[in-house]
Each structure stands twice: as structure tokens, then as C-alpha cells.
């Protein structure tokens, strides 16, 4: 079994790799105050939240999945952004998810 120090070192290495990938993809920038989201990063995050909440709503309303059980499944499906607008239209363009959280509005079709 690995020691706590070894586990923390592995987490740090994973975090550094993730930050490098985000910087390379133009999602974050490094400034005097540390990491900040770029406009592209902010839009990508908003799109991910929108997709996640739409999937939660779809699962609760159409899949008869209890609201307390939809989160974990939505975590897997949220990356299927190409289906988000179809799901939204099918659900009547909901504005809140089963937990009462706002579903961000659709953005411009050229979004990332």
C-alpha cells in the first residue's frame, strides 16, 4: 500500500498534467493571481453544466430515475454535448434541473 506522501505526489502529478492540458487547450491562463479560466474555458464549463443538468432532467422525467439517483449517471452522459440540444427540445427547453438548479441557456452554435 502506498504512503500518504506517495499518494499526494501522484495527485500533484495528475493535477499538473491536467493544468498543462487545459493551458494547451486554451481553457486556462496563468497570471499574477494564479489560474483563471479563459473565455473559452468559461464557455466550455457552462456547456458542461448545461449538458449535465439536461441529462439529470431527462433521466428524472423520461427515465423515471429518482432525482437523488440521476447525478452519477449524468456524470457519464454529460460529455455527449451533441445530444444536449435534442434533449432540451424533447423536454420543452427546461430552465431548472430536478434539484432546482438553473440549467444554463444554450450558447452560440460555434461553442466548444
Could you write a compact summary of the structure shown?
With 112 residues, the protein is mainly alpha-helical. The protein is built from four helices and two strands.
Q: What is the chain-wise order of helices and strands? A: HEEHHH
Strand segment tally:
2
Number of domains: 2
Under CATH, the homologous superfamily of the largest domain reads Winged helix-like DNA-binding domain superfamily/Winged helix DNA-binding domain
Low-confidence residue ranges: none
CATH structural architecture of the largest domain: Orthogonal Bundle
Bin the strand percentage: 5-15%
The helix count comes to 4
Strand order of the largest sheet: 1-2
Q: What is the oligomer described by this structure?
A: single chain
Question: Keywords for this structure?
Answer:
mainly alpha; Arc Repressor Mutant, subunit A; 2 domains; two-stranded antiparallel sheet; 112 residues; 2 strands
Question: Mind explaining what this structure looks like?
Answer:
The chain contains four helices and two strands, in the order H-E-E-H-H-H. The longest helix has 23 residues, at 39-61. It has two domains: 4-37; 38-112, Orthogonal Bundle (Arc Repressor Mutant, subunit A). A hairpin with a 2-residue loop joins strand 1 and strand 2. Helix content is 53%, strand content 7%. With 112 residues, it is mostly helical. The termini are far apart. A two-stranded antiparallel ribbon has the order 1-2. It is globular. It has helices at 4-24, 39-61, 70-77, 84-90; strands spanning 28-31, 34-37. Helix 2 (39-61) packs across helix 3.
